Amino acid sequence: MGRHWQAPHLLLAILVALVSFTYQARRKTFIRVQEENAVETQVKDTLQYATNMYNKDSDDKYNFRILRILKIEKQVTDHMEYHITVEMQRTICLKSESSNCAIQKGELRKQIQCYFSVFAIPWFEKYKVLKKNCSDG
């Protein structure tokens, strides 16, 4: 009679194992967090994306560009997430212009400090700004 109960216990154990593995697969498990260098192609692409999204969403009629990179961290899970802190400054180019423009001088000069959290799967060219926080510098 003891053998009849072994099969249901084995099936229950397998079911519990499958549920726990599925749960673990759904959770974001950080593989690593590391500081990054701005010269790497993936980082450059992410910085460009964050700048483009800032300019697109901004109410300012001029484009901004990165003046100085303060910190870049890459968090790796099933994707990459970049945490970027930069100083940006208003350029002389209007939003309709997209070339590399000089920085504003004089009374229109404006400098801001921004933090961006960017979801990135660079090999598929997929990016999304998860968080953006900018303040006058």
TrEMBL record:
State any single GO MF term. cysteine-type endopeptidase inhibitor activity
What does the similarity note say?
Belongs to the cystatin family.
Q: Which terms are listed as keywords in the entry? A: Disulfide bond, Glycoprotein, Protease inhibitor, Secreted, Signal, Thiol protease inhibitor
Localization recorded for this chain is:
Secreted
Q: Which organism is it from?
A: Castor canadensis
Enumerate the Gene Ontology biological process terms.
Answer: defense response to Gram-negative bacterium
SMART domains from the entry?
Answer: CY
Q: Is Glycoprotein there in the keyword field? A: yes
> What role does this protein play?
Has antibacterial activity against the Gram-negative bacteria E.coli. May play a role in sperm maturation and fertilization.
Entry's PANTHER family? Answer: CYSTATIN-11
Protein name in UniProt? Cystatin-11
Q: Does the keyword Signal apply?
A: yes
Q: Which InterPro entries match?
A: CST11, Cystatin_dom, Cystatin_sf
